[in-house]
Amino acid sequence: MLTPAGVLAQQVFSVVIQKDIAGHLKVDAGPNGEIRTDLSYRDNGRGPDIREVFALDAAGAPNRYAAEGRSTFGAEIRESFDVDGARLRWQSRVDHGDEAITPGTLFVPLEGTVAYTGELVRALLRRDGGRAPVVAGNALVAERVGKLDVEGPGGRVPLVLIALTGVDAFPWYSWHRDDASKAFFAIAWPGFAIVPRGYEASADALVQAGMRAEDERLVALQKRLARPLPGLTVVRGVMWFDAPAAVVRGPSDIFIRAGRIAAIADAGALDVQADHVIDGRGRTLLPGLFDMHGHMWAGVAPLHLAAGVTSARELAGENTEVLRLQARLASGELPGPTLYPAGFIEGKSPYASRNGFVVDSVEEGRRAIDWYAARGYRQIKLYNSIKPEWVQPLAAHAKARGMTVAGHVPAFMKAEQAVRAGYDELTHINQVMLNFIGQPGDDTRTLLRFTRVGDDASRVDIAGPAVRAFVALLRERGIVVDPTAGAFEGMLTQQQGQPNPGLQAVAESLPVLWGRRLRVAEMDLEGQKLATYRASYSRLLDLIRLLHEAGVPLVAGTDGIAGLGLHRELELYVQAGIPAPEVLQIATWNGARVAGASATAGSIERGKVADLILVDGDPSRQISDIRRTVLVLKGGVAYSPAGLYEAMGFKPLAPAATIESGAAAR
Predict the structure, then answer these.
(1) 614-628 in b/e burial notation, b at 16+ Cβ within 10 A?
(2) DSSP 3-state assignment of 570?
(3) Which of 297-301, 337-341, 415-419, 551-555 has the lowest mean pLDDT?
(4) Integer angstrom CA distances of residue 247 from 220, 381, 585, 618
(5) Is 641 a member of any domain?
(6) By the 8 A CB rule, do 248 and 623 touch?
(7) How far apart are CA 140 and CA 119, in angstroms?
(8) Of 224, 239, 267, which one is at a domain's C-terminal end?
(9) pLDDT value at position 167?
(10) CA distance 596 to 378
(11) How far is Cα 583 from Cα 556, in angstroms, rounded to an integer?
């Protein structure tokens, strides 16, 4: 066995979330060369507790592993594997296997710590090209992408940044000592870092250097995959979705020039030659989709674009990074959607989420609102630890600055109280349902905001007077609801070991770890509890349908899986009973109106920005056709979803559309 470098063994790391220490990672050298880890942290009232034991073979590859503990949402973690010669055996709570492997094949646990991943990287760096086969996937590749020196109690430490690809939808970046050991040192991204104790002050420098390296990769991706369409472009013979009317029209020829829709004409009516021709026959052209509940960073922005999401609202990002990303996306430097940020404000408490501003008084909240207003934000989002008595004065201050108010319903408050205190929008359908089932003293800063819904929502009478009266209040005041139904589907319906319904339809296209994690449920649900939670989830869908039928404005958002999650969100609205054309209207026109972008986006009209998606099929008849997007137009630039997916480690969901240019277009 090969033991880890002594610099990693017997070390304590701090988990730093928004500059506060929120937990620890402890690494110890056990008997027989084993490595033992203990990871625990809390953010937003939740977090994992994981303990690992693993060992390395003579080449430095992990060959024995065992982990136990609890996931972020409380599900049991129990996983192990061992390599015996050319045979691998593994067991987890959701899958198992016993198969022959090529020598040197690596294994990625479902919920391994960064200490384990660090040893994978060290093993890869010893191999030609930094490459090795991986169980249930193609290959893992480790690439050196940056360097930095940091100062701490141990003096100056030279570091190298490694990008690990082949695991997830985007590279995993980790810092390692730039010496013979290549021992793991830290991970760091905006708002979150795991660094050696005593080096917490280095987190910001690590974040900035890592972001520069990620930016370089994304800029190169944009240069390679973005295809400008100068001159005149036409999509010929295409059916197109009239979003304000929620009907499909055509066939038509749709002309695009200088990044805007120049003309819409009956097919063949305009006898003109175009510089670029796209065949729209048998396809449907739609306005680009709006994800109105995104949590964006540069690394996932291309995944939104690949799914046809050309606009996204950011609801809880780190302020400096959100503004920076917004500008870079707007300039076309990076591939991704137009970003509409909301200003996040949380109250100070042990359960506080640490994004945006964390305030300890109404006056601090007012100053945060002014900060956002000065930077052009249209909306603020209040969160769980805001004190109920703060809502009315904060909402009034925001409205005086021309901003709307959205968010979670603060703990110890009900949705009706939040609306009467000044909310314009309620995020998450569970927050709406809690209005009818919340109990005095319920602390919804904890997982209770989910478990209360699972336990009790099935008993709510959707047709009863309490629900009807509240829905009428929402309609009368024009309150927007952002259901994020997909965020709760797996949580409330999935049994451990069974596929997550949200991504089951695209399972074969997912990267390695995503594919394995499809069978990992967020909660342990069995027997009657599973039946009860599934009935409660069905009641959430009933409530979404009732809101829509009553005329309460809905917007579509994911709060999770970038791009692909919005496709499932739309399917769930159809499953709830909303007609597919009206669901497409929610995902386009409603999003544009609520984001304040309806003058330029959200519909296919002459003069509007050409943010458009071409779908092979007709999602107004079969909503799942939305996954078969074959071309995305972002202003005057075309993207192949197939190319974007491949660049991020996915198998494409549909072949790319052909664009004929120059002589071929004539």
Answers:
(1) bbbbbbbeebebbbb
(2) helix
(3) 297-301
(4) 39, 33, 9, 11
(5) no
(6) no
(7) 13
(8) 224
(9) 87
(10) 8
(11) 9
Domain boundary among 224, 250, 281: 224
Helix (H) or strand (E) holding 35: strand 35-41
Q: Where are the beta strands (DSSP E) in 276-411?
A: 276-279, 284-287, 289-294, 309-314, 338-341, 343-347, 357-359, 379-382, 404-407
User: Alpha-carbon distance 627 to 472, whole Å?
Assistant: 35
**Position of tokens 């370089």?**
216
CA distance 380 to 365: 11
Q: What are the backbone dihedrals phi and psi of residue 169, each rounded to the nearest 5 degrees, phi first?
A: -75, -5
**574 within some domain:** no
Query: In angstroms, rounded to a whole number, what is the distance separating the alpha carbons of residues 57 and 80?
Result: 16
| CA-to-CA dists, residue 454 to 75, 437, 444, 490, angstroms | 15, 11, 13, 12
* Residue found under tokens 């009206």: 582
Amino acid at residue number 331: S
- Six-digit token string for 172: 């995993």
Mean pLDDT (the chain) is: 93
- 342-359 pLDDT, tens digit per residue, is 999 999 999 988 889 999
Phi, psi of 415 (to 5 degrees): -60, -40
- Written as one letter, the residue type at 365 is G
Q: Which helix or strand (DSSP H or E) is residue 607 part of?
A: none
Secondary structure of 329-346 as H, E, C letters: HHHCCCCCCEEEECEEEE
Domain count, the chain: 2
Domain coverage including residue 432? 428-554
* Digit-coded pLDDT (tens) for 19-72: 899 999 999 987 777 999 999 999 877 889 999 999 999 888 999 999 999 988
Q: In this structure, is residue 348 part of a structural domain? A: no
Residue ranges with strand state E in 225-308: 227-228, 232-242, 247-257, 260-266, 276-279, 284-287, 289-294
C-beta of residue 641 within 8 angstroms of C-beta of residue 632? yes
- Nearest one of 309, 198, 594 to 427, comparing CA atoms: 594
Residue 256 inside a domain? The answer is no
pLDDT per position as a tens digit, 121-146: 999 999 989 999 888 777 788 999 99
Extract the tokens encoding 403: 């901003």
Amino acid at 271: D
Taking only the tens place, the pLDDT of each residue in 238-275 is 999 999 999 999 999 999 999 999 999 999 999 999 99
pTM beyond 0.70? yes
Question: How would you label 369-389 residue by residue, b for 16+ Cβ within 10 Å and e otherwise?
Answer: beebbeeebbbbbbbbbbbee
